[in-house]
Every structure is written in C-alpha cells, then in structure tokens.
TrEMBL record:
It is an enzyme of class 5 (isomerase). Gene3D superfamilies: FAD/NAD(P)-binding domain. It comes from Hyphococcus aureus. This is Lycopene beta-cyclase CrtY. Its EC number is 5.5.1.19. InterPro entries: CrtY, FAD/NAD-bd_sf, Lycopene_cyclase_b/e. Belongs to the lycopene cyclase family. Keywords: Isomerase. GO terms for molecular function: isomerase activity. Signal peptide: none annotated. It comes from the Bacteria.
Length: 393
C-alpha cells in the first residue's frame, strides 16, 4: 500500500492497545481494512507485559495465549513481617512476540517508523505530510499528560539477567518489599523465565516521575548480591514510569481529544489505578471494538468514550486507596498498606487486581485499624477536593 491510502479503520500507535485492536479486527472481522501506524521500528516497543490469571475472562485468555511467552501457576509476595504464596497464575507477553504475531497479519498495512503528526475523525496525517484517510480513527498513542488527572508514579528499571547458576526461584515474586524502603514504597519484582535467567525489577511508588536509572540498577545488583545470585550477563533492560491514579475528571480528560476520534489504552486512561497495569483493559477493549456492529468513526468515538468513562467511574474506590497510599502514609510506611492488604483472602485479592471488588470487599479492605494516621486518611476522602488542590499546586 502506498503510504497515502484509505482504510476502514486507521489506528495511531502500535503499542499494546493499538496492536491488540488491530489483531482482533484482523482475526474476527477480515472484511474490515485496518491500517496501523507506529513511530517506532516495531510494534510494542520494549516491554514485558504481565497479568494475573484472574484479570482476564477465560475467552479472552484463549485468544491472548497467542502472545503469552510464560505462564506460572502461582506467585508470591514478601514483606518485612509477612510472606505469602498465592495460587493465582501469572502470565507474561513480550513486545517481540506481539510484533511477531501481529505484523504478518497486517503486511503492508502496518506502517512503521512513521510518527503521526495530527489525527482527525477521518484521517491520520504523518510527519512527512502523507495522510491515511479512514472511516474511523483510533488514537492509541499511549499515556499523555493532562491537568485533569492527579497522578502518583510507579517507576522501575527491569533487567533480564542470566546468572552463573540457578537462582532457585520457581514462580514470580510480585513484590519483595523486604528491601530498604527508599523513594516511597519500594520492592523488587522477579519473573523467573528459566532456572538461570530472570527479569528482576527495582520498583518505587513515588510522588515524582523522575527516574533515577543509576539507583534502580544498583538496587537490582545489590538485591541479586544479597540473594547470592552471581550475574553472568544482562540480556536486556526495560524501564517504565507508570501512572497511579489519585484523582481525575474523566469527562474533561477524555474531552481533550479531537472530535470524532476514538481513544484506546492509556490514552483513554484505561489502566488499573493502583498498579498502572493496562493489559487486561487493552485486551477487553480490543474484543469490544471488534464486536461492534457499527464501526463508523462517530460510533466508535462514542463507544470508546462511554466505555472509558464508565470504567473510570467504577474504580473510584481504587483511587481512594491510592490517595491513602500516597498522601496519608509516610513514604517509608507505605509498604504496611500492601502488607496488610495481602493478608486478605485470595479471591478478594484476585478481584482487586481484576478491578472487580464489590462493596463487601471494599468494607473488608478498609475494616480495622488503618495502617495510616486516621486524620490524614480522612483528609483524602474527597476525590473532587483532592483534584482541585492538585490542580492549584
Ligand atoms: C516497561 C513497561 C512494563 C510494563 N509492564 C506492564 C505489565 O506487566 N502489565 C500491564 O498490564 N501493564 C504494564 N505496563 C503498563 C502498560 O500496560 C503499558 O504502558 C502499555 O504499553 C500501555 O499500552 P498502550 O497501547 O496504551 O500504550 P503504549 O504501549 O505505550 O503504545 C503507544 C504507542 O504509540 C506510539 N506512538 C506514540 N506517539 C506516536 C506518534 N506521534 N506517532 C506514531 N506512534 C506513536 C508509541 O511509540 C507506542 O508504540 C508496563 C509499562 C512499561 C513501560
């Protein structure tokens, strides 16, 4: 296809969400022509995306399995005063697998190394002036800054490491918070890919978004040293600064886009407020978009906006917890909130990560003596007030 062309649906941004939408459309609606435009040299960038088994429905898991490179039957957490193994599966997808699967399905309808300059309801215009006309345009260009969202940050560097001997870890360690608490809530995250290799991430839940790569790399090295794991080779590295949602005006946020353009992924604030995970939401939205009868631009823009707003509104409880974590708990004490949470029943924890807590769960999570000062906890109850003061600051 010439770069100037026509499509039923043009997607700006070939990251996780854009690529999954293109995949589902190609798979289930072969009659619909899709063009995917990505500024980078491949789909997905440099990521290992993971999810808890209970985060996605069985039928979603079925089609996502084309992308899954590792799945473990259980996971564990470690805190200074508490450790636990959860019999909840944990699965990982890599950006290289995403590219391997989706790129051939699109062929010359995947346009790489092509920064999008502007988008409108009926076209995507590239930096060089070429345009792709389409009946519908989806903006999946990832996270954007907005004054309408008040955020904390989950910052990390992860290294896929080959050790000179077995590390002895069999299942993912989702949080090892038995490390010095620096820069907010700090934990190590370990995905044991083989007996001798693992992805090891040093993560900090911090107020600011500055990423101190040196400190995080040292954190990984010290942690491996403390466990007696000798590093033979660093195979690859990834990093992230993920948003943690404290408060927001979702209608104003979603309204910032060009009229008639549908939004997906982080661009539509579709992420778990406490973990910044977006994979389950991205997969669910890809399925929903591909199942729409009416794939016209106006209809998709209306649908995605309504969907994103409704998910955001359903998750107000999570944002309250995030405000408690970030503003009521002193940084060095933040781990206590998570340590306490992980003593709750496994099904509740699974529903929590799946964004499906019910009122009973919420009461249970908040019951008892809070691990943060009561006065400060009360101070962050109102989302509206919090957003107002964050916008003033
Ligand atoms: C290293 C890392 C690890 C993560 N791990 C997990 C995890 O384990 N589980 C989980 O659920 N979430 C995880 N996340 C969070 C979240 O899922 C990811 O950020 C996810 O990639 C977001 O998907 P997205 O499609 O919305 O945005 P992105 O994947 O960021 O995709 C946006 C795409 O748009 C492209 N783009 C941007 N601007 C333009 C432009 N002007 N023109 C053309 N293309 C453009 C970008 O190059 C990018 O490829 C992780 C994030 C990072 C950074």
């Amino acid at each position: 296809m010439s770069i100037s062309g026509k499509a039923d649906i043009a997607i700006a941004g070939g990251g996780l969400s854009g690529a999954l939408i293109a995949y589902r459309l190609r798979l289930t609606r072969p009659d619909v022509s899709v063009v995917l435009v990505e500024q980078g040299p491949s789909l997905g960038g440099n990521h290992t995306w993971s999810f808890h088994g209970a985060d996605v429905r069985a039928q979603t898991y079925q089609w996502l399995s084309a992308f899954i490179v590792h799945c473990w039957p259980r996971q564990s957490v470690r805190f200074p005063e508490y450790e636990r193994v959860l019999e909840t599966s944990y699965c990982s997808i890599t950006s290289s697998r995403l590219h391997e699967v989706v790129a051939p399905m699109l062929g010359d309808r995947l346009i790489l190394n092509a920064p999008v300059e502007t988008i409108a309801a009926d076209r995507i215009t590239l930096g060089n002036g070429d345009a792709i006309e389409a009946k519908a345009v989806i903006d999946a260009r990832g996270a954007k800054q907005s004054k309408h969202l008040a955020l904390g940050f989950q910052k990390f560097v992860g290294q896929e490491i080959e050790f000179s001997g077995p590390h002895g870890i069999e299942a993912p360690v989702i949080m090892d918070a038995t490390v010095p608490q620096e820069d907010g809530y700090r934990f190590l995250y370990i995905l044991p890919f083989t007996a001798n290799t693992a992805l090891v991430e040093d993560t900090r839940y911090a107020d600011g978004d500055a990423l101190d790569r040196g400190a995080l790399r040292r954190g990984i090295e010290d942690y491996c040293g403390s466990r007696g794991w000798k590093i033979a080779k660093i195979l690859r590295e990834e990093e992230g600064v993920l948003p943690i949602a404290l408060a927001g005006d979702i209608d104003a946020f979603l309204g910032e886009t060009e009229k008639g353009v549908a939004q997906a992924g982080m661009r539509a604030a579709l992420f778990h407020p406490l973990t910044g995970y977006s994979l389950p939401d991205a997969a669910a939205l890809a399925e929903l978009i591909a199942s729409q009868q009416d794939l016209s631009g106006a209809s998709l823009a209306r649908f995605t906006r309504g969907h994103a707003a409704s998910i955001w509104k359903q998750r107000s409880f999570y944002r309250l917890l995030c405000r408690m974590l970030f503003t009521a708990a002193a940084p060095a004490q933040r781990y206590k909130v998570l340590q306490r949470f992980y003593r709750l029943p496994q099904p509740l924890i699974e529903r929590f990560y799946a964004g499906a807590t019910h009122l009973g769960d919420q009461a249970r999570i908040l019951a008892g003596k809070p691990p943060v000062p009561v006065g400060r906890a009360l101070g962050c109850l109102s989302e509206g007030q919090y957003l107002k003061s964050a916008m003033k600051a």
